[in-house]
Amino acid sequence: MTTDLRTAPPGFLAADDVVDLGHPAVQAVRWSLAHDRPDDVTYARRAFEHVRDRVDHSYDVADPRVTVRASEVAEAGVGLCYAQSHLLVALLRAHGVPAGLCYQRLAAPSGGHVVHGLVAVSVAGRWHRLDPRGTDVAFDLVREALVYTPDPARGERDVVGVFTSPPEEVLSPLRGVDDVLRAGLATDLPDRPGSAGESDVP
């Protein structure tokens, strides 16, 4: 998915309680990736690969710790797909690269559906979706590389829009739990068409 983007709305560079890009833990990673003043594309690739390769998915390593804020993910090195995306967005915004959150609704192996978190980044004037969840997924701004391809026959879909902040439907199941492996997950999200300043994103 790509789309033209002439100007980034302010929210796509902003911090919030979850995308806490000013936190020292996030800034330390940012400076390690930007030590030689890379251009935006090079920095975006480094940030993506850092999260993909150095932040384990909670289920993959059976780690029950609950990490939600970008700083928590940076410090712990583990999190759900949402958490991985929060850190990647924080790292991108900390370097002045517009970024937001996007989602897919996917069929769960145990039945029902869950929401999968992704990232959208704007470099070279276009939005590109990135998925740090998959260790074998490349950083590709030409051919979109994602872990999952939604199957409408299974009730799966891409959620329309790029979100500036994590929606409440994603955050609320993670609040007040002490074992992320037993936490409930969001099952669907409302579309946000035009939320990135252009139509059909993603």
TrEMBL record:
It comes from the Bacteria. Residues 38-132 form the Transglutaminase-like domain. InterPro entries: Papain-like_cys_pep_sf (IPR038765), Transglutaminase-like (IPR002931). PANTHER family: BLR5614 PROTEIN-RELATED, CONSERVED INTEGRAL MEMBRANE PROTEIN. This is Transglutaminase family protein. It comes from Klenkia sesuvii.
